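Q: What structure does this chain adopt?
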Amino acid sequence: MKGFQGAWLAAGLMTAAVSPAWAVNKCTLPDGSVALQDLPCAGVAKSVAVRTYAGQGGAQQQDGRAQKAVKLCESAWRNVPNWKDPESVRISNVRRTGFTTVRLHDASIMAVRYVADVNAKNSFGGYVGGKTAMCYLDQSETRVLDVITSN
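A:
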């Protein structure tokens, strides 16, 4: 399981490094179904650009809903069971990086990804250095779907 989480983390870091802002396209397909994706709509699908906040100051410029989302993620990151000293967890540089999909109960669903730098004490009582952590929320940003840390 740890390798799977590492793969997610690596993929997220590569994505964050390559594209600092996310472009999200809402594609209405000929059958009436809607898909949200980062690529332009293909073929005859109708495309509408969706506004995201990545690259615009992150969560600091968003409304109260986003601030609550940040608190949800911070709480989830603090409650990851593998911290040696959960009370020592320091979270900084929280940012909303955009939309993605996650697998949940054998289905791919849209999620909003938040990324932060997390640091905690090790068994010897020293801080080990910042690591990247990701938090995936549902589209309404009111429920944590998954949390990934590299500890």
